Amino acid sequence: MYITGGIGASRKHEAFADDYALPNDGYCESCAACGLADFAHRMLMLNADARSADILERVLYNAVLHGIALDGKSFYYRNPPHDANHPRGNNWCCCPPTLSRTVLKLGKYIYTYDAGSIYVNLYAAGETDIALPENTVTIIQQTDYPWDGKVRIIVNPETQTNLSINLRIPGWCRKAQLKLNGAEFKQFALHKGYVTIKRQWQENDTLELDLAMPVDRIEAHPNVKADTGLVAIQRGPIVYGLEALDNNGKLDLTLPAELHFETEYRPEFLGGVAVIKGKSADNRTFTAIPFYVLANRKKSSQIVWLPQEGKIENPAVWQDKLYRRLDPGALTR
């Protein structure tokens, strides 16, 4: 699996390749991402393990959304991490309806439940009614997730009820705070990636979850030769990439070993996204945007994996290989 949740690296038969063969111009068909989301959900239903929800979240927020233009009128068949002037289109075959029905299944993905437990798998503002055998419980989420890690969950059972509510602590999160009706949990244990609050719930009981969401640099598995010496940028569940349009038409950047990131939420930009800014090793300012909004403006090149000082002996050699694969003219249009 790619860091974006894309799968199926081989153009031949749109298939998996050898172990750890993840070239950054790989195939990553949109329908394959939708299949992975559905598979992760089915595994979650079987094992109630947050690792399955982590995969579900990664593929939904990155590979699946990347397949659909922001205006909903054009699509991608392929979703490689690195691309050059690949126009959206594809309004006629399998990917548009498969992407649409995957997004429309979001309500089934957010919550799962059994007779005595409710699992909150994904965080998204909204309201739902969950019909348990002896009670109906209304759950209200108030949050700006994934741009902010603060989530407020209001629990409204029809009548007071003993119930376990299980909140997923994402695998990417290294620090979380939790409050119940204003009182902070000094410590809490996780079981399969969920924190369980079992009690008698009554109207307007409120949980407040605060998930630390710093900008992280991610390394690929060392067996992924295509990403040797490279890092990707991720914040919360969102994988970021650089688009030439935001970086003076160039993507020949090397990150310094020590790097300070700045995050800024722009409500009017690309439907409302948080952008990340930093400075390259040669002191050039760069801007990274979420992978899923790449290629929603003019034709442009995009890149997810970047060289970093100290991780690759000669970043220029890697960049030369990249630019021979991408169309050099595309980087300056």
Describe what this molecule looks like in 3D.
It is a single chain. By secondary structure, this protein is an alpha+beta fold. The protein has three domains: 12-107, no CATH class; 110-211, Immunoglobulin-like (Sandwich); 215-332, no CATH class. The protein contains five helices and 20 strands. The protein has helices at residues 30-47, 50-66, 95-104, 106-110, 315-325; strands at 83-84, 111-113, 117-120, 126-132, 135-143, 150-157, 161-168, 176-180, 183-184, 190-191, 194-201, 205-211, 215-218, 230-235, 238-243, 262-266, 273-279, 285-290, 301-303, 306-307. The strands form three sheets. Strands 1, 13, 14, 15, 16, 17, 18, 19 and 20 form a nine-stranded antiparallel β-sheet that branches. Strands 4-5-6-12-8-9 form a six-stranded antiparallel β-sheet, with no helix packed on it. Strands 2-3-7-11-10 form a five-stranded mixed β-sheet. A hairpin with a 2-residue loop joins β4 (126-132) and β5 (135-143). It starts with 29 loop residues before the first helix and ends in an 8-residue tail after the last helix.
